[in-house]
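Z., the sequence and structure:
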Amino acid sequence: MKKLFILMLLFCSCALGANAQLLYKITGKNLKRPSYIIATYHFCPASFADSIRGLKEALQSTDIVYGELVNDSMMAPSRLQEIQRALMMPEGKTFSSLFTADEMARINVFLKAHIGADFTNPMVAQQLDKLNPTTLSTQIMAAICMQKQGGKVDITNAIDGYFQNWAKQNGKKVGGLETIDFQMKMLFKKPLARQAQDFICLVDNEDFNIKCIDMVLKGYFEQNLTDIQKALDLKLNNSCDDTPEEKADLIDNRNADWVTKMPTIMEAQPTFFAVGAAHLVGEKGVLNLLRKAGYQVEGVK
């Protein structure tokens, strides 16, 4: 179930501590000029960038902005159709067919509380039944995150898109560490049985979920990655927790792949990397992997 919180971090005066910042400078080894990396969060408004110390200077001193992918790659009509298909149930299957009557009753209560509608409304059911469980759970998590911020978050103008937009407006290049094909397969092509199990885990553990969301929101807006790490480390100690293989696919393996690509990118030109906050933290996070690779990685003060 924790993958749902990680999705929120992929696609959420500063506190003290070793990771009490979002922006880091990368120097050393073969780098002639510094590169930078920042933690992003999809439910943080772009205006929050103004509160991040040293951000404008870091952007201005680099030649290219790299994200997890090139955001514009999603906007071609053919790509939008592929993305739409990835969000839907396979042909001939429905969301509700994955659950028992008792489970659907619990799902309806949960949906009514968080999106104001459920499967008892035939028109709503017709739309929701087309979505796969990961898609619907992500939408609900988004709704909860926005409710926590008074419903004022404009996800079309969030901080995770700010950096590539800034690059385009200032005549700088944009690059991506991954492709949209890879991300769609990773995020939305899990076995339906596991997607359904994750969804029920979301429904049946609301207090746990809210606690995680609160920790992530607090950590990000206080620019404290340590709190985000603590949220990601919380467990229910049952089958709702991500397996080691699931965590590796979603986070660890991707971090390792990025750190093999970043040296060549940074040596070619000073680079500003903007990736989800969940990727920076922990022993297998990008910050620690870069240090192990021989780079100096320091928070921008």
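The CA atoms of residues 88 and 108 lie 19 Å apart. Residues 244-268 form the longest helix (25 residues).

Let me know what you think.
H.
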